[in-house]
Design a protein that fits this description.
By secondary structure, the chain is of the alpha/beta class. It has helices at about 10-25, 60-65, 135-145, 155-170, 185-200, 300-320, 370, 395-405; strands at about 5-10, 30-35, 80, 85-90, 95, 100-105, 105-110, 115, 130, 150-155, 170-175, 205-210, 210-215, 225-230, 235, 240, 245-250, 265, 280, 285, 295-300, 335-340, 345-350, 355-360, 375-380, 385-390, 435-440. The strands form 7 sheets. A 6-stranded antiparallel beta sheet has the order 22-23-26-25-24-27. Strands 3-2-1-7-19 form a 5-stranded parallel beta sheet, with helices on one face. Helix 1 packs across helix 6. The longest helix has 18 residues, at about 185-200. Flavin-adenine dinucleotide (FAD) binds near residues 12 and 34. Flavin-adenine dinucleotide binds next to helix 1, strand 2, helix 6 and strand 22.
Length: about 450
Amino acid sequence: MAGQVVIVGAGLAGLRAAEHLRAAGWDRAITVVGAEEHLPYNRPPLSKDLLVGGTGTAGAAEAHACAYRRSKSVADVRWRLGTPVVRASLRARSVTLADGTVLTYDGLVVATGLRPSRAAIPGPDFGRYVLRTLDDALRLRERLVPGCSVVVVGGGFIGCEVAATARTAGCEVTVVEAGAEPMERAIGPELGRVLRRHHEDNGVRFVTGRIVSELLSDGPCERVTGAVLDDGTAIPADLIVESVGSRPNVEWLDGNGLDLHDGVECDNWMRVEGLPGVVAAGDVARFPNPRYDDVPRRVEHWGVTGDTARRAAATLAAHLGVRSHDDGPFTPLPSFWSDQYGVRVQSYGAPALGDRCVLLDGGLDHPRALTGGVAMAYYRDRQMVGVVLAGIPASRHRHYRELVADATVPSRAWTPERPERGRASWPGDVGGRPPEVIRPLTV
Ligand SMILES: Cc1cc2nc3c(=O)[nH]c(=O)nc-3n(C[C@H](O)[C@H](O)[C@H](O)COP(=O)(O)OP(=O)(O)OC[C@H]3O[C@@H](n4cnc5c(N)ncnc54)[C@H](O)[C@@H]3O)c2cc1C
């Protein structure tokens, strides 16, 4: 049996990979290297509760409150925090840290997650924020005081959550979104429109189909005072939150001949192609899911991060000789949740793959549609690929989860060499009443 596993990235994927390696029987050395100073912590509260109701950037209490409880099995793991890995030589099986330390390994877990993309907007930096880390959240919340004007650039998932939280904190909020509706990519334009109304009912202003082309400043001290849109409209702002997507942290892997165009490409065992003993997990990993097809995709969801970490650890443990390698296909059902003004938006499956949608419950035109509850199914060809619920009681979630899980069961005959789509299905019995087709299938 070999000697050391190095995990690069001390986030959720890194922690869970360490715990699952221990559970799989790996009792030798594990070192986790993290760019941030913090032990692994939970990111979802950063755009929700943690952004309101507190002041002070010291953050010790918040870091403690968000920190994951670590299983006893990883008590002997070595944490190298605050020092990123800057280089890897995967053939020589070593990584180099920013302080010059070289760590050699027998097994490597790539778990470096994402960082926010930046919008190329000319103007001052002071008053311009992004949100990915605990430190980002603590900096931003200092400024989210009642009456403060906030322009959120990008109406995706994080942008919408920040808008809702800032509004709850008493800020004046405008969201500028280049597309037609908020969260359109994740939930489609129909539900996006309902979500937008929900924000507007809560006092958030939406400007869609426009981009921010310039930031205004107050001159000498270069503090943001507003945003100018591409049609020349100026919106006064005390601060700007950029929320225009994320980029995988992969630069440290450059020079190793890997396909890094959108994260790290893996096979269905989370093995980084062609490199025995190297696996990836979490937001950075691009892998095929036979529930859908054989196209490798990244999934930026909390739940899938744990699933991929478990799979990657099992694969690595087999490579290192502490368990047998007899796993079947890996078919996690993606799911994410988002909380906006007390309404939970819950997604199961991969709605973004759908090209048609069908209303399963609720009505899109009711004035307060989200509080009444809406369930929408998404189809690709004739297969249901995802469901999004908004304001639906938790007791009904399991029903919808099972609906989409059943519709995407991969064929038993699936192998990486002969990938085959999950079985087809068309609405059928979805909760006792006929479904309302919003964007119909052309059969
Ligand atoms: C604000 C926010 C809210 C969210 N809310 C939800 C939600 O409500 N529901 C949901 O399903 N999902 C949510 N998510 C997504 C979820 O948190 C992520 O899917 C999950 O955190 C991914 O974990 P990870 O370990 O892959 O990446 P990360 O948590 O990003 O961890 C990666 C770690 O690697 C470190 N790192 C990067 N480069 C290096 C390097 N070169 N060397 C060493 N370390 C490095 C990073 O600093 C980071 O600490 C949210 C994410 C954010 C940012």
